[in-house]
């Protein structure tokens, strides 16, 4: 019995998706967390070494930007803001959205109407307009930006989850859980949630990338973090003006976003497959 | 009748159920005695399932209301009226004192949990067993419903089991806390006949073992004859006839009961007929019955022409590499 479980689990972790995803995500997180020890002087401006080409100077192996700052040091340091925005905003939106979706889909009635009409209003509002209004009232900064992203994105999860709950709540296994006396709370979180988590995971991994880029557009508009603080989206935006003669300024932060998102997507896919016992999605 | 405890364990008195303004059950009365089986029969929409869901108080979530009636249950705290209990109090009765088996074994199990998890849930909920104790008890239950290699079964997922196996798991789940009343809502309708017979035998044996009262909801008169002690015939939300099974079968009073019994084909009645036959159906017309259609022989097949569809030498193969690897891995681990 236990041997059976073990063998299943072992082969579960041997998949390429998990190994690659964990390596990419783990590696990038490691670099970002220990950026202060690994690369110093991300903000050191040196105008005598502007726009150095990559792979030519041992001091600046990945080149320098228009102000002579080391690209790789800035990419690694910039990950702090970007990953914080990406992860925290998505985590907050998922938690809020899933809970709202579960409750409004399961209990229906009054709260369902309130929550979903509120969601409709929210979806009808353009993001940038909401962002400008919000930031104008409460001010910019990292925490406020994350808060803004949560407010504007929980609706997506709520709608997704509510839709699944509506189709699942009348299924017989939910009824039979009720018939053995399971409480509403346990039905919501132990019986319904595992059944609808697949699409939520997919949306989550996609939104991390989206939010990293949204951070840059907010910063570009002057609504985000201090423009001197390095962030992937911000560096990408800065490099646009130099793209024709200094490709490396925007390519390396872009690669960082790409690898993070790829890693997360692989991990998400793996998680979804291993949570789905029928293995429908694994082939 | 051999049992001495002949006072009913569950009594339904003047029960009426309404959905909005339409009344689906009207003044229903019946009672069940421990160790005996009461069959509720009737066509689709006659209120059988609503009755069972009302006893469990599950019908309210779909909008039912009870203008009149009582459902008396004699449990540990003496006689209580289930209709006046709060949902909170009902939750501790459901699964523990009154359990239910659903019609569709294919969809009644949660697809993301193992069989062991699902059976032990009710045990840890009502008996406050630890995880491993609950799993041990689940294994005993699986053996009780005669599932082969119960140990392996605990780690399986519902999609890996056949319909008959799943229904047995459902029975094991329902019996986990040794309920006093078991409501079986058409438990054999979705199964084929041989599995049906097995499930009925298992239910019968377990009923004797645990001295349960069973409310068996069905529309199959053959099943009724096999399993029931008493029968309640329902039609359009009303009880039209009630009685011990033998009397009811030998001497049906109400025209609807007669119509139900007439709809059961008799083995051997077609002996000597070369072709299948179409019979008129008996339908209710007001308080009486009426025949619809006419008797005619179905002899339209032309056996001398070439067939419309024929299958020759068909072979279908599936890639079974994964299963092979899994098996070898499991063997290796042992």
TrEMBL record, chain A:
<keyword id="KW-0472">Membrane</keyword>
<feature type="domain" description="ABC transmembrane type-1">
    <location>
        <begin position="79"/>
        <end position="268"/>
    </location>
</feature>
<keyword id="KW-1133">Transmembrane helix</keyword>
<dbReference type="InterPro" id="IPR050366">
    <property type="entry name" value="BP-dependent_transpt_permease"/>
</dbReference>
<feature type="transmembrane region" description="Helical">
    <location>
        <begin position="85"/>
        <end position="107"/>
    </location>
</feature>
<dbReference type="Pfam" id="PF00528">
    <property type="entry name" value="BPD_transp_1"/>
</dbReference>
<feature type="transmembrane region" description="Helical">
    <location>
        <begin position="192"/>
        <end position="213"/>
    </location>
</feature>
<feature type="transmembrane region" description="Helical">
    <location>
        <begin position="18"/>
        <end position="39"/>
    </location>
</feature>
<feature type="transmembrane region" description="Helical">
    <location>
        <begin position="246"/>
        <end position="267"/>
    </location>
</feature>
<protein>
    <submittedName>
        <fullName>ABC transporter permease</fullName>
    </submittedName>
</protein>
<comment type="similarity">
    <text>Belongs to the binding-protein-dependent transport system permease family.</text>
</comment>
<keyword id="KW-0812">Transmembrane</keyword>
<keyword id="KW-1003">Cell membrane</keyword>
<keyword id="KW-0813">Transport</keyword>
<dbReference type="InterPro" id="IPR035906">
    <property type="entry name" value="MetI-like_sf"/>
</dbReference>
<dbReference type="InterPro" id="IPR000515">
    <property type="entry name" value="MetI-like"/>
</dbReference>
<feature type="transmembrane region" description="Helical">
    <location>
        <begin position="127"/>
        <end position="151"/>
    </location>
</feature>
UniProtKB/TrEMBL annotation, chain B:
<comment type="similarity">
    <text>Belongs to the ABC transporter superfamily.</text>
</comment>
<keyword id="KW-1003">Cell membrane</keyword>
<dbReference type="InterPro" id="IPR017871">
    <property type="entry name" value="ABC_transporter-like_CS"/>
</dbReference>
<dbReference type="InterPro" id="IPR003439">
    <property type="entry name" value="ABC_transporter-like_ATP-bd"/>
</dbReference>
<keyword id="KW-1278">Translocase</keyword>
<keyword id="KW-0472">Membrane</keyword>
<dbReference type="GO" id="GO:0005524">
    <property type="term" value="F:ATP binding"/>
</dbReference>
<feature type="domain" description="ABC transporter">
    <location>
        <begin position="10"/>
        <end position="261"/>
    </location>
</feature>
<dbReference type="InterPro" id="IPR003593">
    <property type="entry name" value="AAA+_ATPase"/>
</dbReference>
<protein>
    <submittedName>
        <fullName>ABC transporter ATP-binding protein</fullName>
    </submittedName>
</protein>
<dbReference type="InterPro" id="IPR013563">
    <property type="entry name" value="Oligopep_ABC_C"/>
</dbReference>
<keyword id="KW-0547">Nucleotide-binding</keyword>
<dbReference type="InterPro" id="IPR027417">
    <property type="entry name" value="P-loop_NTPase"/>
</dbReference>
<keyword id="KW-0813">Transport</keyword>
<keyword id="KW-0067">ATP-binding</keyword>
<dbReference type="Pfam" id="PF08352">
    <property type="entry name" value="oligo_HPY"/>
</dbReference>
<keyword id="KW-0997">Cell inner membrane</keyword>
<dbReference type="Pfam" id="PF00005">
    <property type="entry name" value="ABC_tran"/>
</dbReference>
<dbReference type="InterPro" id="IPR050388">
    <property type="entry name" value="ABC_Ni/Peptide_Import"/>
</dbReference>
